[in-house]
Write a structure and sequence with these properties.
Number of domains: 1
Number of helices: 19
GO cellular component, one term: membrane
Keywords: Membrane, Transmembrane, Transmembrane helix
Subcellular location: Membrane
Distance between the termini: 27 Å
Protein name: Amino acid permease
Helix content: over 70%
CATH architecture: Up-down Bundle
Largest sheet: none
Number of strands: 0
Membrane topology: Multi-pass membrane protein
């Protein structure tokens, strides 16, 4: 694959992958889980801190190892089976669930905005997947440039909501201190469930590591794109959620999937509200494209090592466009199945649980490699070592354990789907040997 992705395009992929539906549609879930404005804002800040700590930590590996993506980082540190399981989980859970959940939200908002019957929302979602599949098949360079444009466009509605909201003369009080939970809510449950929901809105930054072999200067640009992107995203999320809470009272935010639309209507009036909603649709569109751009490379990476059946087909990229065509079809086919069968909240919680299991292993890998290979050239070193990696690891363990406790069935499904890859792995190992 050609090195054709610039720092700006890598940064746009990080921001474009992360900022999608979560920032607009998780506020209703989180306020229901916390019951207070202070705890709602706290879990957004905490999710940002954990994500930045994880980004700083994993950036050291991304800059040090001249290999393609987090799959290879796990291979290098723990052995091939762990890298394969991570890639397998990305292929059948993470990317399809992201694409499916975001496309479903796009479909629901699209039919609502244009007054189309609700039963057509899944059809709209599937058409979006097929349309973006066609766009990405044109070529990596084209889809990356389009992602840069979409990322700029998606910031516009967010900026408008934040600016108008902060200067809104009729603000509703949204106390951020003292840190409390609502009546009938327990402190530990509010933090754990709220954090899990908020972290969905931060998901996606790690997928830029799948483009390591296509970034022009991966040693510097990958870590810069991840760190700058996550820092900006955290600030944006805190400001926009504070704005939502000063425009709508918490009882109107609770379990409200249309909170962003209603807040926009209050801030800008009916026409302005609809215009901002169009911007939100563009934001979701950009996130789906970013996950598609990076997700199709997961089967390709696994097939390059002959770890999947039909690897000779899956591990090929189009000689003219550089696009792994079969990988794109695999991920998008599973995504369409999830659109037809899935539930937005279930899909998002499951993918967060599965991914943070591996993210935690990646954070631990930095500590392992520091001890195992102290002479390894590290163009970027995580600052305040080992404090930042420890924050990342503790945060990851908290997410995984609290999900198992609070959503046992969901966590078992996620673990089960991941472990389904083991028979395939050992079959291919036997076949290769």
């Amino acid at each position: 694959m050609k090195r054709q992705i610039s720092f700006g395009q890598a940064l746009a992929t990080v921001v474009g992958s992360v900022i999608g539906a979560g920032v607009f549609f998780k506020i209703g879930t989180i306020t229901a889980q916390t019951g207070s404005t202070s705890m709602t804002l706290f879990v957004w800040i905490l999710a940002g801190i954990i994500s930045i700590a994880s980004g700083l930590t994993i950036s050291e590996i991304a800059a040090s190892l001249k290999i393609n993506g987090a799959i290879k980082y796990l291979d290098y540190t723990y052995g091939r089976v762990w890298g394969f399981l991570f890639g397998w989980a990305q292929m059948i859970v993470y990317f399809p669930a992201q694409i499916g959940a975001l496309s479903s939200i796009f479909g629901v908002q699209f039919v609502s905005l244009f007054g189309i019957k609700a039963r057509y929302s899944n059809l709209i979602a599937i058409l979006l997947v097929l349309f973006l599949l066609g766009i990405n098949l044109i070529g990596t360079k084209f889809s990356s440039k389009m992602q840069s444009v979409i990322t700029i466009l998606k910031i516009i509605p967010i900026a408008l909501i934040i600016i108008w909201g902060l200067f809104n003369p009729t603000k509703i009080p949204a106390p951020i201190i003292p840190l409390t939970v609502g009546t009938g809510h327990s402190f530990p449950t509010a933090i754990s469930q709220g954090l899990l929901s908020a972290l969905f809105a931060f998901e996606g930054w790690i997928v830029v590591t799948n483009l390591a072999n296509e970034v022009k200067n991966p040693e510097k640009d990958l870590s810069r794109a991840i760190i700058l992107g996550l820092s900006a995203i955290t600030l944006i999320y805190v400001l926009i959620n504070y704005t939502f809470m000063t425009v709508l009272p918490i009882d109107q935010l609770t379990n409200n999937n249309n909170a962003a639309f209603q807040a926009s209507m209050k801030l800008f009036g009916q026409f302005g509200g609809k215009l901002v909603t169009v911007g939100i649709l563009i934001s979701v569109y950009g996130a789906v494209n970013a996950f598609m751009l990076t997700g199709m490379r997961t089967p390709y990476i696994l097939a390059q090592d002959n770890l999947l059946p039909f690897s000779n087909k899956i591990g090929k990229a189009n000689i003219h466009t550089g696009v792994p065509v079969v990988g794109a079809f695999i991920v998008d086919a599973i995504a369409i199945i999830m659109i037809l069968l899935g539930n937005f909240t279930v899909l998002t919680d499951m993918l967060v649980f599965v991914m943070w299991t591996f993210n935690t292993m990646l954070s631990v890998a930095v500590i392992i490699l520091r001890k195992r290979e102290p002479e390894l050239k590290r163009p970027f070193k995580v600052p305040w070592y080992p404090i930042i990696p420890i924050i990342s690891v503790i945060g990851g363990i908290f997410i995984v354990v609290s999900t198992i406790i609070n959503q046992f069935v969901l966590s078992i499904i996620g673990i089960g789907l991941t472990l389904l890859g083991l028979p395939i792995y050992y079959y291919m190992q036997k076949k290769n040997n």
